[in-house]
Amino acid sequence: MLKFKSLKKTTRTAVTSYGIILVAFAIMFPLQQFGLLSNAMAGQLVPICTYIVMAISLNLTVGVLGELSLGHAGFMSVGAFCGAITSSALQEVIPAAPLRLLVAIIIGGIFAGIAGLLVGIPVLRLRGDYLAIVTLAFGEIIRNIINCLYVGVDKRGLHISMKDIASLGMENGRVIINGPQGAVGITRISTFASGIVLILFTLFIVLNLMNSRTGRAITAIRDNRIAAESVGISITKYKLTAFITSSVLAGMAGALYAMNFSTVAAKKFDFNTSILILVFVVLGGMGNITGSIIATTILYMVPEILREFSDYRMLIYAIVLILVMLFTNSAKAKLFRERVFDFVLRRKKNEEEEGVKND
Amino acid sequence: MAFLTNLINGLSLGSVYAIIALGYTMVYGIAKMLNFAHGDVIMVGAYIAYITMSSLGLPSFVAIIFAMIVCTVLGIVIERLAYKPLRQATSLAVLITAIGVSYFLQNAALLIFGSAPVSFRSVVKIPALKLFGGELIVTGESMVTVIACIIIMIALTIFTKKSKMGKAMRAVSEDKGAAELMGINVNVTISATFAIGSALAAIAGVLLCSAYPVLMPTTGSMPGIKAFTAAVFGGIGSIPGAMVGGLLLGVIETFSKFYISTELSDAIVFAVLIIVLLVKPTGILGKKISEKV
Amino acid sequence: MKKLLAILLAACLVFAFAGCGEKTSGDAIKLGGIGPISGAAAVYGQAVQRGAEIAVEEINALDGLKFEFKMQDDEHDAEKSVNAYNSLKDWGMQILVGSVTTQPCIAVSTESNADNIFELTPSASSTDVLGGQPDADGNVTIQRKNNVFQMCFTDPNQGIASAQYIFDQKLGEKIGVIYNSADAYSKGIYQKFMSKAKELGLNVVAEEAFASDDNADFNAQLTAIKAKGADLIFMPIYYTPASLILAQAAQMQYDVDFFGVDGLDGLLGVEGFDTKLAEGVMLLTPFTADAEDEKTQNFVKKYKEKYGEVPNQFAADAYDCVYAIYEACKAQNVTADMSASDICDKLVEQFTKADFKVDGLTGNGMTWSNTGEVSKSPKGMKIENGVYVGL
User: What burial class does residue C246 get, using C-beta atoms within 10 Å of its C-beta: 0-12 exposed, 13-18 middle, 19+ buried?
Assistant: First the structure.
């Protein structure tokens, strides 16, 4: 324990976050393989992985870059639908599910990254709540457009229309995206293992970015933009780097998410989902990657555990959310916590001292 | 003629947004927080008015006043219990708490009032105005909403400019610490702001449900988000800005529905918002932020 | 702080594992239900829950088969619906009544198909729920899920029936349509209606959409339809937006006839609704709460006593679902100790039998085909003096 504490802070964060994921995998994977998990738990594994990736990537924008984004689900949406199209279109070309999933996730990430670039260039000129509202607006625009999107595939290739299925003009094809009904008939290829791999990849990217020169520049911009600018850091370049990285990862998470359900609709990725992910990030702590992982896991499971309370479920969830926020952030609660810690520490110290005496 | 009809519909819709946006803007100006529970206070106000009118059989003006009282109390209670302990915390922490409060209000309403939508009887008894030989019809609801919106905006402007409390509000919004040193009770001022914002939410709820007469526990959330957009549009923190933003948003929404596409109208509204913010980064009537090094 | 979170995590895990221990036991067949109990669509899920509960109570009062019913919330979301399904499986569900809404049901029916659990949905009306149905161009997107059946009409059915009805009865010269493009149900009916209308030569002058479930402002759509001079508006939508359209049409003094589908049922039951607004509205629906027959009256009475409101079509469909399952279980001698998969095979066999007929609230002599669709006939209704009158 002492050795662990003497490590550098960055190394410590890396060890804990990779550690948590690997330990979770080492415990859950065999249980899942041997069917020892409850169905409810097994069903939540992939969504939890997705939301962890979402939370880590949003933490990059909100915690590390310090810009509030209310439209993160929009990037997830782009990734989800691009991934769904890729996977459906390549069903015959790449029969191996893991490889197809990988291709779908990469394509989803690329398109979400392009969306991130398009949004980022104009948006990052703005600051604070104005930036927040523009990201919110972007998320709603994406949702609205995908609601009117029709995509199908037949032997001649992809068909895209903004009107209806009939105008796709397909011959014996399959509809991939059916307007407001979203993508239907997805083959489920996401697995828990692939989710874990994606989390590890995300951790690798984000932690390395944070500890690199670029990362330090980004944190400098967050802490004092003007000072950062005056020492020659290009604000736009670094902001954009963080923003695009974040959206690429969100897109990948989206693709993973879409491949886990037989259907996915644009409505899922609305303002409420963006907010949900933001809640994970804030509760886990700004810029705290390990915190994001833990908070996501717990908060995702709370409503499922509360199923016993039936009608009162969401009400209790709301109360839990408010209380947790008050407990972790209010001045009085902080004072109370400090006192408790002080007390515990003092006792420990006393014990140690006594132990020394006894020797 | 369709143009005029749409313009009037847009103004009427925009006025509702404007009244809700006033509540957002006032709270933001003083507490520097996005009160996402504001939309749900509207829903509570509408339910209170509905119950007063249909179950207790009281006249509509009593219902409005009663709704205002309940919402004012609710606003103050929410502020005291959920927001005040977080005065020193980051604005994001308060934002998440506000979202928690929003979930709470919606789900509590679901348990108390039930999930079935109720049909709200309009409180406006003025008959519709027929112009150009019946070609153009202005409904009583539209007239009342627009007029109410203008009166509220003027009253609020005078209140913040002239009254002692209004001046205190402006002082707190400018610099909380300095205001406190000048002997202004910051806690009371913030509570008062929430009280006024929530009372406005009650009026907005009644007017919203008079014009679009369906009421259910989620009624407030979409107008809430739209009004928030309107407040930013006009420059958040600015009272005339909220009014301008609300009206513009309503008109753009109605026109894009009629002339371009009903399905993409939301996308168009938000796209216009983005363009406006790129040209004027702090909204139409927002203050320029000058940065100090 | 971190320690606290870690402890919480541990507690959560313990909770999750605690669920494992439950196994199928007892002498009641476990019926699971999934639908939105909270959120914007809560009214539909709650109606299904209540309708099913009444049916289960009635059946349990009889001798013979016993049911145990448990409803889980999905917030009208596919992801949550799958979670709800999994948690019902942990509970030991043997037969599924659900999901209530279309998109979640598509996701859940894929799961239940893989697990071979019998699924009868009261109200998810898209053909994608069943699978195996070609669209207009002969494209099959989803393979048929053999374990899934519907209690409600499929969307195409309703669209075709409505166009035919309007044509046969010569209800309108110029027809306007308002539909919810963000809703699979509404859009499905709309598309079939349009193709049938074209075939019959109906004059559709305006097609207006709205794109969100919580849209409240229909002035723009109504102004556009009015400008085209439509004398009949076809509304393939649910009653909540319909009540708004009726009120706004009245506000702008637009005198026009309205024609709706089964989603419109429930309109008169809206608390505080001015039934004068609905005067003359026509709809095709399999169920009306003021039907004269004893079965319906009995059901409506019980529902009102228990929940203080008038049941809508969703509640009636759910009630019929439970009875259909009951009849099928009786015919196949299904008992509570059978596995879900065995029950599924028996029920599928029974449901697809030509002589398996169920009399319910939403129709007499209902039968099912291999495609999973129900066959029953909608009744044309007109609202006169605040009550439904058969057309």
Answer: buried
Q: What is the CA radius of gyration of chain A?
A: 23
Q: Where are the domains of chain A?
A: 16-358
Measured CA to CA, the distance from residue B263 to residue C364 in angstroms comes to 39
Task: Give chain A positions within 8 Å (CB) of B274.
Answer: 122-123, 134, 137-138
- Which range marks the domain in which residue C225 is found? 156-285
Q: Which residues of B touch C45 (CB under 8 A)?
A: 115
Do residues C51 and A1 make contact, with C-beta atoms less than 8 angstroms apart?
A: no
pLDDT digits (tens, 9 = 90+) for A161-220: 887 777 777 777 778 888 878 888 888 899 999 999 999 999 999 999 999 999 999 999
Q: Decide: helix, strand or coil at residue C386.
A: coil
A38 → closest Cβ in C20, C103, C107 = C20
**What digits encode the pLDDT tens for the residues A262-321?**
889 888 898 889 989 999 998 888 889 999 999 999 999 988 888 877 778 888 889 988
Site from A49, A156, A167, A307 to mutate, C interface, most C CB atoms within 10 angstroms: A307
Residues 140..199 of C with a Cβ closer than 8 Å to A: which?
140-142, 181-184, 187, 191
Following DSSP, what letter does each residue of A148-206 receive, concatenated?
A: T-EEEEETTEEEEESS-SGGG--SS-EEEEEGGG-EES------HHHHHHHHHHHHHHH
B122 with B53: CB under 8 angstroms? no
Beta bridge partners of C149: C120
In a domain, B100, yes or no: yes
Residue A84 in tokens = 């769904």
- Cα C346 to Cα A1, C91, C143, C343: the distances in Å are 61, 22, 21, 5
ipTM: 0.87
Domain shared by C242 and C315, yes or no: no
Partner chains of B (3+ C-beta pairs under 8 Å): A, C
Sheet of C358-360: strand order equals C358-360, C363-368, C374-375
Range of the domain at B124: 12-219
Which pLDDT tens digit goes with each residue over C311-332?
888 999 999 999 999 999 999 9
Q: How many domains does chain C have?
A: 2
Q: Are A139 and A270 in contact (CB under 8 A)?
A: yes
Number of H helices, E strands in chain A: 14, 5
Chain C residues whose beta carbon lies within 8 Å of the beta carbon of residue A40: 16, 19, 83, 86-87, 89-90
The overall pTM is greater than 0.80: yes
Beta strands in C170-315 (DSSP E): 175-180, 204-210, 232-235, 257-260, 282-285
Q: Do C205 and C176 meet the contact criterion of CB atoms below 8 Å apart?
A: yes
CATH code, A16-358: 1.10.3470
3-state class (DSSP) for residue B213: coil
Tell me what percent of the residues of chain C surpass a pLDDT of 90.
34
C200 and C144 share one domain: no
**C-alpha span between A163 and A173 (Å, rounded):** 17
CA distance A253 to C224: 42
Residues B147 and B139 sit within 8 Å (Cβ to Cβ): no
Residue environment code for C218-232, b if the CB has 16+ CB neighbours within 10 A, otherwise e: bbbbbbbbbeeebeb
CA dihedral B44, B46, B47, B48 (to 10 degrees): 90
- Could you report the per-residue pLDDT of A221-239, keeping only the tens digit for each? 989 888 998 998 888 899 9
> 3-state DSSP call for residue C232?
strand
CA distances for A201 relative to A21, A195, B252, B254, angstroms = 11, 10, 44, 46
* C360 and C320 Cβ atoms separated by less than 8 Å: yes
Tell me how many degrees the CA angle A239-A244-A247 measures, rounded to the nearest 5: 130
For every residue of C151-206, DSSP letters joined together read SSPPHHHHHHHHHHHHHHHT--SSEEEEEETT-HHHHHHHHHHHHHHHHHT--EEE
